[in-house]
Amino acid sequence: MPSALPDDPTPAHPQRAIRSFVLRAGRMGTGQQKALADLGPRFVLPYRAEPLDLAQTFGRQADTIVEIGFGMGGATAEIAASRPGDDFIGIEVHTPGVGALLKLICERELGNLRIVQHDAVEVLEHMITPGSLAGVHVFFPDPWHKKKHNKRRLIQAGFVAKLVSRLKPGGYLHCATDWQPYAEQMLEVLSAEPGLVNTAEAAPGYAPRPDYRPLTKFEQRGIRLGHGVWDLVFRRPGGEAD
């Protein structure tokens, strides 16, 4: 095939979008496999490039919170169980984590939790309508430690602006990390977003861990070893909170 002509506006090799995750092969336990087969059709929402009807999805009108990258889903299930009046959508690309959370949904009888196994950027862009979310959780995203990989970090200005557009007035964005350089970047990016205000009253701007976010085993071990954990809770102005 001939290469693009000099005056052709279409590049010969379109640049691929930078992804904040790498798909890794993971072992699936028999319980996770069974949960995917038995519960997936009910609790895993297929990705479609069209708006999701939240009320129809959960069969009720309630505040909806999206969690991005829930890992193996332990904290997600615990939060959903502790907040039965709210609905939750967990977004995760790794199949073992989806299977693990499906098991927890069954064990804890969580009717207020659904899963989308797809790239969060595309889910937010196409499935979540503007101004529809009461909250967004981003807990311990990959910090991409090497400087040359920092561009892969999820919390960047453009992505945060997209998150803000999906929040309803008064909605919140809660991020947490155990990597201080990433915490500092998060604080800088979130503070620069004009559509958000920091809920932390004291400098430097990190929030106390909200009661609804449980301590993970990894986090508890880190705390015992003297490692830090930073929570950032920002809110979109407006709504009943003001």
From TrEMBL:
Binding residues annotated for substrate, in chain numbering: K146, D178, T216, K217, F218, E219
InterPro entries: SAM-dependent_MTases_sf, tRNA_(Gua-N-7)_MeTrfase_Trmb, tRNA_methyltr_TrmB_bact
Keyword line: Methyltransferase, S-adenosyl-L-methionine, Transferase, tRNA processing
Binding, S-adenosyl-L-methionine: E67, E92, D119, D142
Protein origin, superkingdom: Bacteria
Biological pathway: tRNA modification; N(7)-methylguanine-tRNA biosynthesis
Start and end residues of each stretch annotated as Interaction with RNA: 148-153
Family to which the UniProt record says this protein belongs: Belongs to the class I-like SAM-binding methyltransferase superfamily. TrmB family.
Protein name in the entry: tRNA (guanine-N(7)-)-methyltransferase
Natural source organism: Leptothrix discophora
